[in-house]
Amino acid sequence: MNILRFKRPTGLIFIIFCFVLLTAITSLQANSHHNGGNQYSWPDSLTIQTFTGIVIVDSTFFHPSYFIDSNGDGTAEYQLMFGPWWYTPDNGAEWPRQDESVTIVGAISSMKTNQGFEQVIVFEINGLKWRESIAVGGHGWNMDRFWEKNGDTLTVTGKVFEDTTYFYPIFFLILT
Questions:
Q1: 3-class DSSP state for residue 158?
Q2: Torsion of CA 15, 17, 19, 21, to 10 degrees
Q3: Which of 7, 86, 125, 149 sits in a 20 to 30 Å window from 139, CA-based?
Q4: Please, are residues 39 and 89 in contact by the beta-carbon 8 Å criterion?
Q5: How far apart (Å, rounded) are the C-alpha atoms in residues 103 and 129?
Q6: Would the CA dihedral through 117, 36, 87, 173 be positive or negative?
Q7: Burial bucket for residue 41 (CB in 10 Å: 0-12, 13-18, 19+)
Q8: What residues form DSSP beta bridges with 170?
Q9: Beta 78-81 vs 118-125: how paired, if at all?
């Protein structure tokens, strides 16, 4: 009777492969959108708080990550979640700069970032509104697919400009 037998290196490789596969599957499940909730940032369960401190900008990633040192020890306590990199409100509020002293009104999400920091969803910076406190979450910041339940239609005309200087092309619409 022939029984499938592994030589030592083949068996070890198989065990490592199974471990990596199970780890990847678990990680994918853990990082899912949680049934549309985007890591439990439910607007009705967030408590709005005020945070003051010095901004730390980590620009090692494709888009900078923003943190706040709220106790003055030179290390970040929270990661600031401003929304998409392209967003800037029309009221004059600006993205903070490295070592800038800020006052943030926001809410701590119940989930931590990949780096282990608690997330502060920013609603106001230095007295200027950044975004509405009820419009948090993933797609469209409202924890739902923003194109659903939206009867508004907007038609624009213009020329499309494609910027290919980055890894991903960026498209701009120049209105005419």
A1: strand
A2: -150
A3: 125
A4: no
A5: 12
A6: positive
A7: buried
A8: 163
A9: parallel
Instruction: Determine the Cα–Cα distance for residues 58 and 113; give it in Å rounded to an integer.
Output: 14
Report the distance separating Cα 176 and Cα 162, nearest Å.
Answer: 16
Say yes or no: domain 43-140 is CATH 2.40.50: yes
| Domain spans, the chain | 43-140
Residue type, 77: E
pLDDT-derived band at 96, boundaries 50, 70, 90 = very high
**Which of 15-19, 39-43, 47-51, 60-64 shows the highest mean pLDDT?**
47-51
More confident residue, 26 or 139: 26
Confidence (pLDDT) at 123: 92
pTM here is: 0.55
